[in-house]
Amino acid sequence: MLTSLSIRDFVLVRALDLEPEAGFTALTGETGAGKSIMMSALAFALGGRGGQDLIRAGAGAAEVVAAFDIPADHPARALAAESGVEDDASLPMVFRRSVKRGGAARAFLNDRPVGARFAAQLGQLIADIHSQHEGLGLLDQSRHRSLLDAWARADDVLAEVARAWEALRTATAARLALEAETARVSSERTWLAHALDDLDNLDPQEAEAARLALDRATMQAGERVAEALEGASHSLSKANIENALANAARAASRALSAPALCGDGADSELARRMRGACEALERALIEAREARAALDLAAAACEFSPAALEAAESRLFALRAAARKHNVDADGLAALRDRLRAQLEGIEQADTRLAQAAAAEAGAQHAYRAAAEKLTARRQAAARKLAKAVGEELEPLKLGKAKFRISVTPRSEPGPSGCDDVAFEVETNPGAGFGPLARIASGGETARFALAVSVCLAGASTAPTLVFDEADMGVGGAVAAAIGERLARLGQTRQVLAITHSPQVAAAASRQLRVSKAISEGRTVTSIEPLDRKARREEIARMLAGASVTREARAAAGRLLAGA
Q: 233-258 as b/e, with b when 16 or more CB fall inside 10 Å?
């Protein structure tokens, strides 16, 4: 609820600080004292009209600060968080609006700059202001659907519709994406088929180009290597190293068996050295023979066919030509063929996938339509009941000839909130036709219609503060008493502020504030003061009697207060 309202240099108000309480508070005072100025100031703080004419004469700027104590789970808190505005749920939500002379109005929420439109969005969730000039509540048709849904307790069906809508959006997006992809790749079908035929005929293998390049290099170098091997083998043969080594080994063996080395001299130093020489010669002979064999094997490996070299070169040329054509590495042709085959298979299966996507979308559409129809039925039933309840409130408010209805009509575009537009409409005179409340009703009628609807919506509206400006205009007696009774009833569940000229309405309030104006320093200023019970009786007596308060007026005021 509204916990404080601070007004500075606003129209006739130089400085005014108000701390409203819970329940129903009546604001009274002489005509022209500035009662409606406070309501205009509150509307200004909540994103309403802001112009240079709001600045008090002689002042450089006007400013209004309104603080609201609202629950942590209130929709206004959630909207502030979604919009990135820092908000501590344990503290009041503070709206501040100012306008400087020669400048534009600026809005702040919790001392953070915000747009006036955003401030108005939040304000509509926090306070409903009903007057001849301001309408942040029931006059805004965009709120009618949410008000009806809240009254109908339709949260469960709304959640079902929202889920079905999201599922439908997902299914539609999937179908559209598949259609776009199919259209794009279908134009490539002929090219893909031709390219795949060429690659199938070529039949590239993984890492084949690298292997062929190595084989070709080996074959190209084979002739030179063979000549070098043949030269080495010839040198071995010409040097007759094997025969020389064999002869030397035999001669050393004979020398080792000489008489001087036999017998007692077998372990002599000479004998040991001779045996070492023989063993070395035998090893050299073995190595020489192995070298000859290795040369022969290497020479055999160098033998190749010119036809094999030509085939390798042709194959490598074909692979590299295909790689240039497809702008890939030659060793990537095998992977490319796999990708092209997968794309072609995907195109050939596109019709099946597209049919499946269309079927899924149709199913989601059916589910959404069923949920939306359920919500429409809930709304239509609630609209009839709410319209009947409001109609029963009109007669006591001197609106007996008027009619109220809630139209639930198909909207042009469905959405997460269903397929309906909702509008509160009135007919103030028989045969005049129904229309929007703001266009059809006069100022006083608008406030009384708003009162009737607010009484019926009391348990559904999220706004903790209701403001009524002269809902009793043009009525008196029993009608004024009926208005006061309904405002008091609203005050049991909401904070209600009502500007009134009716003593019956003022007496029904749980608290009364008197607004007055005076001349200070040559300028008219407005002030406000809370009234105790004695002061209330005097003020209500003035409202009954006029300028001259009589004993009878005071007695009547006492009876009104006693009846409240």
A: beeeeeeebbeebbebbeebeeebee
Contacts for 186-191: CB closer than 8 Å, 24+ residues apart: 186/347, 186/350, 188/343, 188/347, 189/344, 189/347
Pairing assessment for the beta strands 112-114 and 127-130 based on DSSP bridges: unpaired
Q: Which of 189, 212, 215 is nearest to 202 (CA)?
A: 212
How far does Cα 94 stand from its chain's mean position? 26
Radius of gyration of the chain from Cα atoms? 51
Dihedral sign, Cα of residue 164, residue 170, residue 174, residue 180: positive
pLDDT tens column, 438-483? 676 666 677 778 788 878 887 676 788 988 887 777 777 888 888 8
**Helix, strand, or coil here: 19?**
coil
Q: Is 153 left (phi over 0), alpha (psi -120 to 50) or beta?
A: left
What's the angle, vertex CA 78, arms to CA 74 and CA 83, rounded to 5? 145
Tokens representing 519?
A: 């001349």
C-alpha atoms less than 13 angstroms from C-alpha of 311 in its C-beta half-sphere? 5
Q: What letter does residue 56 receive in the DSSP assignment?
A: P
Query: Is the CB of residue 128 less than 8 Å from the CB of residue 463?
Result: yes
CA distance 193 to 96: 69
Q: φ and ψ at 514, to 5 degrees? A: -110, 130
Please tell me the distance from the alpha carbon of residue 308 to that of residue 151, in angstroms, as a whole number: 91
- E strands, 69-188, are 93-100, 105-109, 112-114, 127-130
Instruction: Give the HSE-up count for residue 322: Cα atoms under 13 Å, Cβ half-sphere.
Output: 26
Please give the Cα distance from 533 to 296 (Å, whole number).
Answer: 131
The 10s digit of each residue's pLDDT in 82-137 is: 888 888 888 999 999 999 998 889 999 998 999 989 998 898 889 888 765 444 45
Length of the chain: 564
* Rounded-to-integer distance, Cα 535 and Cα 62, Å: 31
Q: Indicate yes or no: pTM above 0.70.
A: no
Neighbours of 439 (CB within 10 A): 9
Identity of residue 140:
D
Q: How far is CA 547 from CA 535, 542, 550, in A?
A: 16, 7, 10
